[in-house]
Amino acid sequence: MNKSELRNMIVKSLEDLTPEYKERADAKITENILSMPEYENAGTIFCFVGTEDEINTKDLIDRMLADNKKVCVPLCTDAGIMVAKHINSRESLSEGKYGIMEPSESSATIAPDDIDFAIIPCVTCNKRGQRLGHGGGYYDRYFENLDIPCALICREETMTLAIPTSGHDLKFKTVVSERGIFRNE
């Protein structure tokens, strides 16, 4: 199965996930992230803003802000290119060109080297840290030369064992689901 076929299969399977399961899984994933030493030790955290089909990161972002973390979220600026923008609240976000809640372009840009911990989305992944995203290459390009702790988050029901990969696809050392934190050192 190629990337496009797997992506389509997983996206279609999202329709079968109950709202109760998604809410329960997302809350447990948030709890698992908050328990990580990487979270505790981070001053600046990069986190995506989940869409309808992704893990809901609203509570996680609110908690980071309440814990006085410096929070930055992605802003897509060009095809395959994103930057990290600082936010002080979720209310400062507005719907962007892909239907994703984004910060304004005038928000302060956070340099990649200033990020202490990053939370990474996916369409699917496996516990070995192989990831399939939406196909734009944004995260692979952004994180390819960074050596910072990252947590790839995914619900167990959308994980798969075999992920087709290419040479440019990143593999992440930590995967977090509702069932736990999986390390690949």
Order of strands across the main sheet: 6-3-2-1-7-10-11-12
> Stretches where pLDDT falls below 50 for ≥5 residues?
none
**What does the overall shape look like?**
globular
For the largest beta-sheet, the strand count, sense and barrel status come to:
8 strands, mixed
Looking at the overall shape, the CATH architecture is: 3-Layer(aba) Sandwich
CATH topology descriptor: Rossmann fold
Mean pLDDT across all amino acids:
93
Given helix and strand content, the structural type is alpha/beta
Number of helices: 5
Helix content: 25-40%
- C-alpha Rg (nearest Å): 15 Å
What is the N-to-C order of secondary-structure elements (H for helix, E for strand)?
HHHEHEEEEEEEEHEEE
> What is the class in the CATH system?
Alpha Beta
If you had to describe this structure to a student in words, what would you say it looks like?
There is one protein chain. By secondary structure, the chain is α/β, with parallel strands linked by helices. The chain has one domain (3-183): 3-Layer(aba) Sandwich (Rossmann fold), CATH 3.40.50. Helix content is 25%, strand content 25%. The chain has 5 helices and 12 strands. It has helices spanning 3-13, 19-34, 37-41, 58-66, 138-143, and strands spanning 44-47, 70-78, 81-87, 94-95, 101-102, 109-110, 117-120, 124-125, 131-132, 150-153, 174-177, 180-183. An 8-stranded mixed β-sheet has the order 6-3-2-1-7-10-11-12. A hairpin with a 2-residue loop joins strand 2 and strand 3 (81-87). The longest helix is centred in the first third of the chain and has 16 residues, at 19-34. It starts with a helix and ends with a strand.
